[in-house]
Fold:
Amino acid sequence: MPLSRNDQHVLSALFDAEGIPSRTAPFTEEPHWALPGIPPTILQHLQELEVKAIRPLNSPSPSHQEIDAAVTELTHILEQYPTYAPAWNNRAQAVRMLVGETLHEPAVAASTLYSDLCEALRLAAPTQLNPSVSPLQRKCLASAYTHRAHLLLKASKSVAEDPSRSKMLPRELQGINSAGLEKMAAADFREGGKYGNEIAKHMAVQLNPYAKLCGEVVREAMIEHMRENGFVPNVAPRFVGD
Structure:
């Protein structure tokens, strides 16, 4: 018996708020809800457990206690079924609701947040033997890549403001400078876009160094055009104290 429409909405509300199908990655329609490492016979049961865990979070302002309870329930699911990728993804989303959008404090929760996303991506990733992905895989991959990219971009900006914050990042990221973190974020945004997340597609373009260069060239050309037509003065502006 398939999940109800409401349960499907609750299940997708956190881990795939913006997932949109894309032709840039091959996928298969059958079976629609297939996931690597999860027998079809228990998939519905896992989804029902997941719905129960995250339903309280599908509200404008869930309480700290409700979020904590959801994290605990998702942890129980993962203890029994550690290969169920969406639960790793959703636990990361719930932990993020507790600690915010930084990867440097509190250290333990931030490390869990990052490692959960990495595990979700590892489990849901297509393989050389089976490069196609089901729609459920696609949603999980699009969400997890976009989520991780956003966190990496936040970390990049934080380290740019204070390089010492690099020491407070998850162990895998310590020692990576701001430019390196931004490069990692851009790569994840590209992957998120490939799997259908429109926000990820937009951010991948914004972080593309060639796009940045082209944007600067266009800006300079527009200024030069306006200067030639008398809209911009040729002299540099003077400031008080010059």
